[in-house]
């Protein structure tokens, strides 16, 4: 930490770090004395504590984890292996307090081993926690406390406590072939089983990294459900158990059947709760971002006309596309208006909202799995319990009971009653939890714990990272759950198809360049191919849009909005439409109202703009050739298709019967085009394109392909590796492609023979 050696706070307090830390601990234990609070000095920046610091300190003391403060610091100091496990239920204060105590620990040691780094599985959570912790520590965000998330680094040379998206820290650890510049590393929300979190733990356990450098510490924070597995993985380290929150857990209220329209059922439940005047804020869990936005739009229209005693509820979405606006969920509303926060799996363990008293749970989640597919599936029992605990608190609320629901009075007796009957009989002293599914739904279908993401996602980026940094062979890494060998083999095969590996299985020159981009390998390959096909400007835009802002997120809400959307659609397909959307967004001056009128996510488009700039800067650093914009020309249209196919030949589907039933070449699944596809929204009925390239395949009630563009099979045969076509599963589509390949090969031979005869005749004439 050479930067810290020149840090003003570090230099000022290095010699008295232990004494300062003790003073901070005494201040936090005893609170301000009358007339002395103005004299108390913050040891992290040397400035007097503000009155707000003491106000927040009182709130911190009320958290369940506060009772474990001294135990945690003792274990952190004395842990023989440098690892401490913290186990506690959601909402107990782990994510806000543990980082501050680690900062105290590092301060007492003079930050000699480096600063404190805290990982989060979601960038939005890292941003939100950094803002909250900086406020609680009475420090300036971006100075002593900072955060690092994609496309935004709010840290500086004085940063002592950094919140970081775990994916970024994984890149840092891999790039240094060590543990990075930190003295204490906090791996938060380990029970979410993100790829980066699991891989970070595996790399720290890997023999090639050896022991932790110096006297560093690792703190793993988890839900109690994952504690036994983590105990075994880390060799039974010291464990701090956080006391359970006081109060009675809300009793779940179950429906008899799963509703056919989840959004409508959730909206009805919220409206009924509002009309019954049940106190407290509401948290609604739906599977996808699309349904979150639909629910918010519907509630905003329907709660206004309600005859309520107070102001109408404030409806707030909470999903990764919200950006800094997520802080609105924590702010007090005007005139005491109720907040209705609509979210998905993002808030299962992150984003504890103390004002929540009622939870409405769909019991489902939409997750990305291997090969960029998506699946709609039941949540785990651990997630269901975490959602139920969100409603635990004071003041009490009343139960929420739409028609045809079942209330569980005790484990042995269950009764079915009408909504009005239950409202008159049931009173939940600590909140309410409505489950939009039968009790048997989770008992029969849900796993106990969330599935490890590393066991179900495409492992190509992970394998590329490990090979690039030569940390370890994929099969040699330690994991909480080892990925299936066939998944690792599939990743190696895909990288080989992309020409990222040489004959020995090491990274090729192309593979080294691919690993430099913060993109999936197939998208990075398409971007590199654009250098050859002179469409770099367009592919930069497309890469940013596919990563940050993939089009419309909900159906048009009016005829006017539908007309504005159609004006942005491109005849060449969804990929060209994304480019057209981005260019129109830039021409509008990145106007938020312009986005809202068209159903576009303004924050996501702003992120795409920043990502595009980062990608352009990276290409310039690598000294890759660029090209001038030519979007709209016939040549550019062909070049863009070639660049896309160079990376996405693994994601091609063929309409088998002319009615829009597409067979995926690599998986033999059948799917239809997404309702938001430009080919579906055209007014005049047209035949679906016979061959398409797609970006995402969703496995759900209606399998669909998202972000689709028409391609020519001849171009696929020209650009895909021959052995890829030969290895496709048997199908009529594979036979057609191989026939095309043979025909093109024969034509090439005839052309070469003709050229040879002409050249020979010319020689004779001479």
Which key features would you list for this structure?
766 residues; alpha/beta; 8-stranded mixed β-sheet; 42% helix; globular; disordered N terminus; disordered C terminus
Oligomer: single chain
What ranges have pLDDT less than 50 throughout 5 or more consecutive residues? 1-21, 207-211, 394-429, 758-766
Give the helix tally.
29
Structural class: alpha/beta
Strand order of the largest sheet: 4-3-5-2-6-7-1-8
Estimated share of beta-strand residues: 15-25%
Give the beta-strand count. Answer: 25
User: Major beta sheet, specifics?
Assistant: 8 strands, mixed
Gyration radius, rounded: 28 Å
Mean pLDDT: 82
The helix fraction, in percent, is 40-55%
Q: In one word, what is the shape?
A: globular
The separation of the N and C termini measures 76 Å
Structural overview:
One of its GO terms (cellular component) is spliceosomal complex. This is ATP-dependent RNA helicase homolog DQX1. The N and C termini lie far apart (76 Å). The model is unreliable at 1-21, 207-211, 394-429 and 758-766 (pLDDT under 50). 42% of the residues lie in helices and 16% in strands. With 766 residues, it is of the alpha/beta class. The strands form four sheets. It has an eight-stranded mixed beta sheet with strand order 4-3-5-2-6-7-1-8, with helices on both faces. Strands 11-12-10-13-20-9-17-18 form an eight-stranded mixed beta sheet, sandwiched between helices. Strands 21-22-23-25-24 form a five-stranded mixed beta barrel. It is globular and about 90 Å long.
């Amino acid at each position: 930490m050479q930067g810290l050696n020149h840090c003003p706070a570090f230099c000022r307090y290095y010699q008295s770090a232990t004494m300062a830390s003790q003073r901070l601990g005494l201040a936090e234990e005893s609170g301000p004395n009358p007339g002395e609070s103005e004299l108390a000095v913050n040891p992290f920046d040397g400035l007097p504590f503000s009155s707000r610091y003491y106000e927040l300190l009182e709130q911190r003391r009320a958290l369940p984890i506060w009772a474990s403060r001294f135990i945690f610091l003792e274990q952190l100091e004395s842990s023989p292996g440098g690892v401490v496990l913290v186990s506690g239920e959601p909402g107990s204060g782990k994510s806000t307090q543990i980082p501050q105590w680690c900062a105290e620990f590092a301060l007492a040691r003079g930050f000699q081993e480096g600063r404190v780094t805290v990982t989060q599985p979601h960038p939005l959570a890292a941003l939100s926690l950094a803002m909250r912790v900086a406020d609680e520590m009475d420090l300036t965000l971006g100075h002593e406390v900072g955060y690092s998330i994609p496309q935004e680094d709010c840290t500086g040379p004085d940063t002592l406590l950094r919140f970081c998206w775990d994916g970024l820290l994984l890149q840092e650890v891999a790039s240094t072939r060590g543990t990075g510049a930190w003295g204490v590393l906090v791996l938060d929300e380990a029970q979410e089983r993100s790829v980066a979190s699991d891989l970070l733990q595996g790399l720290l356990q890997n023999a090639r990294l050896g022991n932790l450098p110096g006297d560093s510490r690792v703190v793993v924070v988890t839900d109690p459900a994952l504690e036994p597995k983590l105990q075994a993985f880390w060799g039974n380290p010291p464990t701090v158990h956080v006391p359970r929150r006081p109060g009675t857990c809300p009793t779940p209220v179950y429906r008899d059947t799963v509703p056919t329209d989840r959004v409508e059922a959730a909206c009805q439940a919220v409206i009924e709760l509002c009309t019954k005047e049940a106190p407290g804020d509401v948290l609604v869990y739906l599977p996808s971002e699309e349904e979150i936005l639909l629910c918010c739009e519907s509630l905003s229209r329907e709660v206004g006309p309600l005859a309520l005693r107070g102001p109408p509820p404030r409806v707030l979405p909470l999903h990764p596309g919200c950006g800094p606006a997520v802080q609105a969920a924590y702010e007090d509303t005007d005139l005491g208006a109720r907040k209705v926060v609509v979210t998905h799996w993002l808030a299962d363990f992150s984003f504890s909202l103390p004002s929540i008293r009622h939870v409405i749970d769909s019991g489902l989640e939409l997750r990305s799995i291997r090969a960029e597919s998506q699946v709609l599936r039941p949540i785990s029992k651990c997630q269901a319990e975490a959602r139920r605990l969100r409603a635990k608190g004071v003041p009490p609320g009343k139960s929420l009971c739409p028609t045809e629901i079942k209330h569980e009075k005790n484990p042995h007796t269950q009764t079915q009653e009408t909504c009005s009957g239950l409202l008159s009989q049931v009173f939940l002293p600590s909140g309410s939890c409505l489950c939009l599914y039968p009790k048997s739904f989770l008992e029969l279908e849900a796993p106990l714990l969330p599935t490890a993401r590393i066991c179900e996602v495409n492992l190509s980026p992970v394998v590329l990272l490990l090979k690039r940094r030569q940390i370890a062979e994929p099969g040699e890494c330690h994991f909480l759950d080892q990925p299936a060998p066939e998944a690792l083999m599939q990743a190696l095969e895909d990288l080989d198809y992309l020409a990222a590996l040489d004959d020995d299985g090491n990274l090729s020159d192309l593979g080294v360049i691919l690993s430099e981009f913060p993109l999936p390998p197939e998208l990075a390959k398409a971007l590199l191919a654009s250098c050859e096909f002179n469409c770099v400007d367009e592919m930069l835009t497309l890469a940013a849009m596919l990563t940050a802002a993939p089009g419309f997120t909900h159906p048009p809400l009016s005829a006017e909005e539908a007309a504005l959307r159609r004006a942005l659609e491109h005849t060449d397909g969804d990929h060209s439409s994304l480019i057209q959307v981005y260019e129109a967004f830039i021409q509008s001056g990145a106007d938020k109202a312009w986005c809202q009128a068209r159903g576009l996510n303004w924050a996501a488009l702003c992120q795409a703009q920043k990502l595009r700039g980062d990608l352009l800067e990276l290409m310039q650093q690598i000294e890759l050739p660029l090209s001038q914009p030519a979007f709209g020309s016939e040549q550019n249209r062909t070049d863009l298709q070639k660049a896309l196919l160079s990376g996405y030949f693994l994601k091609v589907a063929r309409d088998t019967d002319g009615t829009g039933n597409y067979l995926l070449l690599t998986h033999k699944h059948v799917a239809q085009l997404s309702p938001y596809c430009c080919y579906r929204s055209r007014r005049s009925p047209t035949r679906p394109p016979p061959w398409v390239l797609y970006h995402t395949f969703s496995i759900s009630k209606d399998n669909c392909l998202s972000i689709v563009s028409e391609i020519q099979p001849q171009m696929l045969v020209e650009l895909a590796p021959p052995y890829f076509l030969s290895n496709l599963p048997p199908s009529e589509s594979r036979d057609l492609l191989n026939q095309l390949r043979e025909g093109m090969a024969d034509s090439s031979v005839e052309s070469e023979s003709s050229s040879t005869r002409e050249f020979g005749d010319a020689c004779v004439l001479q």
